[in-house]
Design goal:
By secondary structure, the protein is of the alpha/beta class. It is built from eight helices and eight strands; from the N terminus they run E-H-E-H-E-H-E-H-E-E-H-E-H-E-H-H. The structure holds D-xylitol-5-phosphate and zinc ion. D-xylitol-5-phosphate (DX5) binds next to strand 2, strand 8 and helix 7.
């Protein structure tokens, strides 16, 4: 799904659920339920126990889940060596790989490698990392992920002081003439009370885990509510 703005400047809103809160003993069913609830893509949080103090899934789990869901998969690689396994995540069915600027000594080369492997490359920045860290690689990516929590766990509190950085990244993308190609994603603490501010700041792709899986009115309601709040704020 292109993140290109529509003729009246409205950006396509995407809801990308984090699979982290799912019941991993029945992952296939959980993915099918997410697809039925109307989400746009699946966000796999890959953690190596080094870059972040947690350990989650690798290519085998993603590959075995591929047949249960027809939506695009993105892998959020919270790992120190994304180059080593990039081809494995793509072979497992991921069409976008998100690497952390803080983990890549040669970020420009890493993003170029992902593109040359036939997948979309994207770059993520932690809360303490400035927007300028991505200024020279925007032509290599289709998305910039501004973390709104310190990565490593779901269920954390949204850091509102990241909104000016979302705005800055949006401005860098516009200044580079890449608005029709590069979207801004936010990840961490996104829910009914935080999504509007992030959308108003310039984000159009929203990762949410606990706010979707723990919603009292169920998944489908949680997804449509989040999408409506984001859409209302992004054109306000
Ligand atoms: C954190 C992950 C997020 C997280 C989101 O490191 O990158 O994707 O799982 O979960 P919530 O929406 O519960 O903050
Ligand atoms: Zn994530």
């Amino acid at each position: 799904m292109s993140s290109a703005p529509s003729p009246n400047g409205e950006r396509a809103i995407e809801i990308a659920p984090s699979v982290l809160p799912a019941d991993f003993s029945k992952l296939g069913d959980e993915l099918a339920a997410l697809e039925a609830a109307g989400v746009d893509r699946i966000h796999w949080d890959v953690m190596d126990g080094q870059f972040v103090p947690n350990l989650t899934v690798g290519p085998p789990v993603i590959a075995s889940s591929r047949r249960h869901c027809s939506l695009p998969f993105e892998a959020h690689l919270m790992v120190y060596t994304p180059d080593v396994m990039a081809a494995d995540y793509i072979a497992a069915g991921c069409s976008r790989l998100i690497v952390h600027a803080e983990a890549c000594t040669h970020l420009h080369r890493t993003l170029g490698n992902i593109n040359s492997l036939g997948a979309s490359a994207a770059v993520a920045i932690n809360p303490a990392t400035p927007a300028s860290a991505v200024a020279h690689v925007l032509d290599l990516v289709d998305l910039v992920l501004v973390m709104t929590v310190n990565p490593g766990f779901g269920g954390q509190k949204y850091i509102a002081s990241m909104e000016p950085k979302v705005r800055e990244v949006r401005a860098l993308i516009e200044a580079a003439g890449l608005s029709d190609r590069v979207a801004v994603e936010v990840d961490g603490g996104i829910g009914p009370s935080t999504v509007a501010a992030a959308a108003e700041a310039g984000a159009s792709v929203f990762v949410a885990g606990s706010a979707l899986f723990n919603h009292p009115d169920g998944l489908a309601h949680a997804v449509s509510d989040l999408r409506a709040r984001a859409a209302a704020a992004s054109i306000a």
